[in-house]
Amino acid sequence: MNVLEVSGVHKQFGGLVALDDVNFQVRKGSVTAVIGPNGAGKTTFFNLITGVYQPDRGDIRLEGKPLVGLRPDQVAMLGIARTFQNIRLFADLPVLDNVLVAMHGRLSARIPGILLGRRQIRQEERRAIGEAYWLLEYMGLAPYANEIAKNLPYGTQRRLEIARALATHPKLLLLDEPAAGMSPRETRELTEMIHRLREDFGLTVVLIEHDMKLVMNISEHILVLDYGRAIAEGPPEEIRNNPRVIEAYLGRGAVSGA
Fold it and tell me: Which ranges carry the ABC transporter domain (predicted)?
């Protein structure tokens, strides 16, 4: 069963074609990578899936439900969460509050109930705080609960961004260059964490990544973009030896032997 289906998606910015009729399916429970040189359209692809941009044409569906035309918050409520290439935390808020903010869309509290201090609102708040602490514990972030997010080490901020995404109860988790800036040890820990997330939360994971060792070790399926076009798709062993992929990354001479 496919959790995500992208059909004929095209996006153009002025004279620049960012994505050119891309088709893509993601199997439920899989770990899939989207790779390609800089400027290939990878982050634009994520932005279209999550409602940041709207495609000029084409269709995007999550478990059969259309996503085109929805706002990012509506897409998130349907079950898609993401992280960003450049970390986008609420930098001046404590770690705990960063996770709690992500739960807002799932809570029933409204301003009148909050102002009146209704019992069910207080109970819901206690449950949310308990869940947030549990997520921080799961991600190894509990000791930092009251720390200001911007004061955390880089790799720890990356984990907080993932904890915040998990707080939305996603079905599909999109990770945009999660290993960027990480040490080899942190990258190994990230690989193990992605495997755990899939098993423990029943997630489907799609990641954009330039670390080819990570991609080949963790992915079951890979989509390769180049200048907005899908030039290859398949399991890691096929992608590794695909001449078009080698050419896109290393140049035509790498394929011809020139």
Answer: 4-252
Integer-rounded Cα radius of gyration of the chain: 20
Range(s) for CATH 3.40.50.300 in the chain?
1-79+170-206+221-245
d(Cα 39, Cα 41) in Å, to the nearest integer?
6
Residue 169 corresponds to which tokens in the numbers above? Answer: 């109860």
Mean pLDDT of 79-91: 92
For residue 202, what are its two tokens? 């029943």
Give the global pTM.
0.88
| Packing angle of the helix pair 154-166, 95-102 (nearest 10 deg) | 30
pLDDT of residue 109 exceeding 90: no
Cα angle vertex 151, ends 148, 153, to 5°? Answer: 130
The class (CATH top level) of 1-79+170-206+221-245 is: alpha beta
CA 79 to chain centre: 12
Q: Which residue has the tokens 């290439």?
A: 85
Rounded-to-integer distance, Cα 69 and Cα 55, Å: 9
- pLDDT, one tens digit per residue, over 167-215 is 999 999 999 999 988 888 888 999 999 999 999 999 999 999 999 899 9
Cβ 155 vs Cβ 183: under 8 Å? yes
d(CA 101, CA 50): 18
